[in-house]
Amino acid sequence: TKKLVERLTTRYQAANGEQRRFLVVSCDHAGCGYSEGRRCFVDGPAVMTATMRRCVQTALSQLVSMGLTSPPPWFLLGHSMSGGLSLLLSHQLQQEQAASSSPTSLEVPSFSGCITLAPLTSMSIPPAPICTILRMIAFIFPYHGMPSWISGEMDNREVWDNEVAVAWHMTRDVWGVPGGLGWARAMRWGSAAGLVDISLAVQVLLV
Predict the structure, then answer these.
(1) Could you tell me the pTM of the whole model?
(2) DSSP 3-state assignment of 94?
(3) Which of 31, 135, 164, 193 could form a disulfide linkage to 37, CB 3.0–4.6 angstroms apart?
(4) b/e string for 74-110 if b means 16 or more Cβ within 10 A?
């Protein structure tokens, strides 16, 4: 998603006049990317879709304050986990549109569709008793890392394109072991529970 947003933004910046017909607004969840917050923590679907909704509301209100007579049509774009969250928020917005008697009365107006790239639509969900235990532990120790025998550790160099990118990030990211963004850190209990809840919510939506 990051690369697609960068390319869309570059295209927008290179265009001029009538060709400049779109604007890309990206949203970091708390603790994701380079935003502030608990690093690498995945909250539940309700919190994360609410964050996306607030981002959209802020962007639309700023556009109106700049002189637009009404909010322009807009689309949600998401990949993987954000793709699943985009599906959930899209469904909420469609329900609000269907129940509204007037488009101008909507809390988030002008929603026009959702674009997803390999969205999170399913994952290996543990049996119900295990999910219950997971949520209990996550409630008590949400930010603690899971034992390595449950959650394997991955060398984060695998997520970057090349050695130049690895070298750049190693000098700037300090979370985890020295020189790495989350290197040698297992998944947090709260993140595991959050991902399970997001996946379950999307699966229910798609049934």
Answers:
(1) 0.79
(2) helix
(3) 31
(4) bebbbbebbbbbbbbbbbbbeeeeeeeeeeeeeebbb
